[in-house]
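Side project, low priority. Logging it here so it doesn't get lost.
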Amino acid sequence: MKTFALISLFFFSIAFSADAQVSIAEDGTIGIMVERHISNNRSIKHVSGWRLQLIASPDRQKVMDAKKDFLSRYPNYSADWVYKAPYYKLNVGAYRTKLEATALKQKLKHDFPNAYITKDNNIRPSELD
């Protein structure tokens, strides 16, 4: 047991006393490609994703009331309405995957049983939950 402790102490002392330096040699074209990739990603204004649609109605006031009701119950979520003739539609959340949107649907099913998941190709990257 003492020899094990001495051997362990020896290896730990070597490990902590060694000065290791790592240098990375990068080809210049790699840096250019990384910068191009970063600038392309920053230029993206909208992405595809999933939202939950709570209500669709030709009555704008009904949709506004539903939005007010939703935000009073769930203040941590975003809610926006859009108009696609002849309906006003109340959408909540913004998710990359349908599975993430399904989790929100399960959470809201008691308060909003008619909600359903919808595809949205106009989500700002900053909106994603």
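Brief comment: Residues 2-17 form the longest helix (16 residues).
Revisit when time allows.
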